[in-house]
Amino acid sequence: MASKILLLFLFFLAQHQPQNNNMVKGDATLIKRTCKNTKYYNLCFSSLKSDPSSPTADSKGLAVIMVGIAMTNATSTSSYLSSKLLSPKTNSTTLKMVLKECADKYSYAGDALQDSVQELADENYDYAYMHITAAKDYPNACHNAFKRYPSLVYPPDLARREEGLKHICDVAMAIIDNLEW
């Protein structure tokens, strides 16, 4: 669902962009220059280069691509947690409650990221940044939910997913920082 919305947004953005010859498209040079201004150059560069729309994207389009990658991460993590809820191995009521809370938090992160795409389209970069910041923070609430119950262990796979979402959000925010507001 989120990928369909992102694709529709990218199509809309491409169709309704004012023609501006000063906007450089997302060729390798723009992608390298953009990623050098982020905390995670390799993540930024490999993510943008792997997206087929990046060669024709401008800087704002590169930000939208990174937000889309973050949305995919948040959505897939929410689905992963929901599937853990249904697993016969998950028999603890407390664990089920925490997994549900975490699935909801990652879903909220996806919603915040979707909102940031709209804000980018409207060139409300400060609001886009705010939504990405919120999305980056939702995993902390999940982590804290596990901490409330000392008998529960924070799953290593979830820790990797949390770190991944935070890094992707950092990259998206750094790209937005370099857009002309």
TrEMBL record:
UniProt keyword list: Disulfide bond, Signal
Family: Belongs to the PMEI family.
Keyword Heme annotated: no
Keyword Ribonucleoprotein: no
Residue ranges of the TM segments: none
NCBIfam families: PME_inhib
Source organism (scientific name): Stylosanthes scabra
Record's protein name: Pectinesterase inhibitor domain-containing protein
Pfam family, one: PMEI
Signal peptide residues on this chain, from the entry's feature table: 1-18
Superkingdom to which the source organism belongs: Eukaryota
All copies of domain Pectinesterase inhibitor, residue ranges: 26-175
